[in-house]
Amino acid sequence: MKDVRLDFPLLRTHQDLIYLDSAATSLKPQIVLDAMNRYYTDYGANIHRGLYAISEEASSEYEETRQVVADFINAPSSQEIIFTRNATESVNLITYALGREMVDPGDQIVTTVIEHHANFVPWQQLAFQHDAEFKVIDCLENGDLDIYDETGRIDLSGIITTKTRFCALTLVSNVLGTVQPVKEIIKAIRAINPKTLILVDAAQAVPHMPVDVQDLDCDFLALSSHKMCGPTGVGVLWGRNEILAHMPPFLFGGAMIREVRIEETTYDESPHRFEAGTPDIAGVIGLKAAVRYLQGVGMQTLYKHEQELGATLLKQLQEAFGTKIRILGADSRLPRIGLAAFELEGCHPHDVAALLDEENIAVRAGNHCAMPLHARLKANATTRASLYLYTTHDDITKLVTALHKVHTRLCPSIKK
Ligand code: ALA
Questions:
Q1: How much is the pTM?
Q2: Ligand 1, residues 20, 174, 371, 387: which to mutate, most atoms within 8 A of Cβ?
Q3: Measured between alpha carbons, how far is 92 from 123 in angstroms, rounded to an integer?
Q4: Residue 255: C-alpha distances to residues 47, 68, 226 (Å)
Q5: Among this protein's residues, is 369 annotated catalytic?
Q6: Which end of the chain is more exposed for a tag (fewer CB within 10 A), N or C?
């Protein structure tokens, strides 16, 4: 994994930077930048419109990304891949297009307290607007979902009912770093209510581990290009064809219609029905390069690397600070990606992040768009270090050394 650092130009232009904020956005390899640049310099026409060579080339490069993404998440068909602006928009597409049609007063929408706001607020608002019940699965002190019976089996009786229209789940929490047993949860949901539609937020999962929508058996999956070596401005919604085929549009305009008359408009098939207007063509082409790059590294290899590094991160932080550090989710026995959100005794996370910046270390501080989870775990805010394929053991050692300095500066009176 060491050689991959050479692929990331930002690591060359900032040789001293220790970038530990990949959960916010990953760095981009040169081949992604080249692919986007090639579009703008060599064939930068609009897609699906021009009957001339460079427009056809742009259309074909754009459409090819659907197949590449479909293969990456093992979707049965490239027609099930919808390009959006980001994972947030992917979730909103479902809550607007399908949610408004399907949710009646008295119905129920289920999500969890560990969600990112992107997979929480759209469902909350949908429930509120339709007088539906908004049920939030709680978590335990270690961040694991409170869904297990005394034998450790997943038991969703009392949570999922015949009224549950939607259930929204994250595969990997952007604060806990834990990989949730989503496949098993989905099995348990289906056993109670096979009609519940299930959306998986995989924004923090797809960049770090192999994800297979058929194996998960979900109905929808949202992901984000910029967290997986791709450009910002592009997200993906995967959905089962049989649902998308009947789903009404969300945004109206050009490129999503079949026929427009003054009296009536008819719409194109999915996925084009859900891609109104000129999309981020360069971004989608960049995403294709990013997926191919990750496939070249190998998702199993990447996941193993992150699990090792993530375990090192936790161990070094715990050894260095003992009871003075609280790492959210560290006591969970679930598998993890390389991420640790922590409170350091006596130090405000914003001060920690600002002082780490003086040491050329980039981390994120705050609630990481997961206020319900922070409130549940009684943490006002945390400092988060998040790793990726270009992170090294040396980066972690430097973080821990710098944190010592920060702690001494901010809390001179606390005995180390
Ligand atoms: N969702 C991104 C994060 O967790 C921005 O940092």
A1: 0.96
A2: 174
A3: 8
A4: 9, 22, 25
A5: yes
A6: C
